[in-house]
Each structure stands twice: as C-alpha cells, then as structure tokens.
Write a structure and sequence with these properties.
GO molecular function: DNA ligase (ATP) activity
Largest sheet: 6 strands, mixed
Keywords: Ligase
Distance between the termini: 56 Å
Strand order of the largest sheet: 13-14-10-12-11-16
InterPro entries: LigD_pol_dom, MtLigD_Pol-like, NHEJ_LigD
EC number: 6.5.1.1
Oligomer: single chain
Helix content: 25-40%
Structural class: alpha+beta
Protein name: Non-homologous end-joining DNA ligase
Order of helices and strands: EEEEHHEEEEHEEHEEHEEEEHH
C-alpha cells in the first residue's frame, strides 16, 4: 500500500520509497525526497513564479528518460499552473512550483527541475541571463572554469555580475541578474558574448553546437536565453549515476579548480554547504543587484 503523507496541509501519496534511483550510490527515492524537503528554503525561491519543465527518470538514469512541459497526468488541482506562451495549443499550461507540497509532489515523480529565465507574469521578459559552459572531451569542468573566469571579467566590463553553479553534469552555468529585458535582446547579447569569447580564446572556446567543432573545447551555449528554452534549476538533482546536484559554487572554487572531481557536488554535500555559505545565488533575488543589459553596438546582428 502506498503511504499517504500530509505535507503542508496537503495529502500526498509517496510511492516506492525504497526504490534505488541512483545505482552507483544506492540512493533511494526516499532519500531523494528527504533531500528536497531539506533544501526547500533555497530551491523554492528559484522555482517560484517560473513555469517548470520536468525531465523524468522514474527508473533511474539508466531507465527511460522523458521531458515534459505539460502537467503530468494526475496532477492535483491544487498544484499551480500557468499558460504556456507561444504554444500551438491555446490551452497549454505548465506547472509552477510555489510551495513545499507542490515540490514534494513533483519530486515524487522523480524529476529534474528546469526553469525559464522569465517569470509567469511576464513571459519572454527575462530577469536573468544564463551561459551554459559545456566541455567537449577531453576538456572537462577545469577548462569550463577558465572560460567562466574570462566571461566574468567580460560581463563585469559591461556592468553585469555573474554567479556560478555546477550544471550537475559535466559543465558549469553562469547566471546574471538583469533588469527585465525581452528574451530576444538577452539572447542576442549572450550570443555576442559567446562569439567574442571564441575570438579571444580560439583554442579553448566554441560558440557553435556542431559536434565536430567541440572536442577539447568549451561550448558556450547561449541558446538557453531564448524564451522557449529552460535551464536546470539551482539545487535540482540530475539524472546521473551518482546523485549530483546543480549547485552554486564560489568564485574561489572556480579559480582553484584543478581536477574534474573538485566540483562534483552530490546530494549529501549540499546541507553542509548551505551552513557554510547560505544560498550563493541569493543576489539573483535582490532588485539592487539587477543591472540593465548594455545597448547593442551599432550594426550588431540580432
């Protein structure tokens, strides 16, 4: 019988708690749910008011993985949803995780959380910029850190402050708080950053996704700023052999990264880090930290 648990006044059926989800560590679904309950205070602000897409992996990373934007079948009526902009279906909606009960309901489905750079009340108007640094083997996160430091200085020259987190996979994400800006403009600026980085670091950076260009280099993926795209939410678990988390890191950790293992952050690492640092991405919620996007240079391509 599936146990019924009350979470923040909502009754939830939490199933298969002993099922092993991350085989390399023996991590069970019950431990996964406990993790999300533990990080509620830091993950919910990153999910709040942002339509979420799910990468579901109910049988672990070695099983079937499927990506969904629509509310899954059986979504409770009390789980918030928001219209899906620019959808061919005018009635299309996405889930919005606003509270602990919704978080635990979604975590029970065994998901990665992926969110837009904009909020539900202002579709396609971004309040943050993201750059996804993805290494092409034999490059690793070590090379990503070198590129991140370069991009941090480039962004600072434009009056923008970058914050770093691991992707939870092989790479690194940079997040920049912005004054509300149309996603199209943010995308164009992010692309210029990637193109410039390749011009300045041609042996280390590539701005195009083509696989034959990427071995040994870091792909600066600027495309996730498009209104339709999403990025792994801070503190989400990833569908990996080990229970890796997309977790914030300090710039000191980025500067000192000397091996790929240095910035592999697992589920059990997060609580101690929160005690030491709090949420390193908290400035993303500070209106005073949001900066305007610099104007495009004359003749810049959109």
């Amino acid at each position: 019988m599936t146990p019924i648990t009350e979470v923040a006044g909502r009754r939830l059926a939490l199933s298969n708690l002993d099922k092993v989800i991350h085989p390399a560590s023996g991590t069970t679904k019950g431990e996964l749910l406990h993790y999300y309950a533990t990080v509620e205070a830091v993950i919910l602000p990153h999910l709040h008011d942002r339509p979420v897409s799910f990468l579901r992996y109910p049988d672990g990373p070695g099983g079937q993985l499927f990506f969904t934007k629509n509310p899954p079948p059986g979504t409770p009526a009390w789980v918030n949803t928001a219209p899906m902009p620019r959808s061919e279906d005018p009635g299309a909606r996405q889930v919005v995780i606003q509270d602990l009960a919704s978080l635990m309901w979604a975590a029970n489905l065994v998901v990665e959380f992926h969110t837009h750079q904009w909020r539900a009340a202002s579709p396609a108007v971004a309040d943050r910029l993201v750059l996804d640094l993805d290494p092409g083997p034999p490059a690793t996160i070590v090379e990503c850190c070198r590129v991140a430091l370069h991009l941090r200085e480039r962004l600072a020259a434009d009056g923008l402050t970058a914050y770093a987190k691991t992707s939870g996979s092989k790479g690194l994400h940079l997040l920049v708080p912005l004054e509300p800006t149309p996603s199209e403009q943010v995308s164009a600026y992010a692309r210029r950053l990637a193109v410039d980085a390749e011009a300045e670091l041609p042996r280390l950076v590539v701005h195009r996704m083509a696989k034959h260009l990427r071995p040994g280099k870091v792909f600066v993926d600027h495309s996730q700023n498009a209104a339709a795209k999403t990025t792994a939410t801070p503190y989400t678990l990833r569908a990996r052999r080990l229970p890796a988390v997309s977790a914030p890191v300090t710039w000191e950790e980025v500067e000192s990264c000397a091996s790929p293992e240095t910035l592999v952050l697992l589920m059990n690492d997060i609580a101690p880090r929160l005690e030491d640092y709090g949420d390193l991405l908290a400035p993303l919620f500070d209106p005073a930290a949001a900066a305007p996007l610099p104007a495009a240079p004359p003749g810049a391509a959109p």
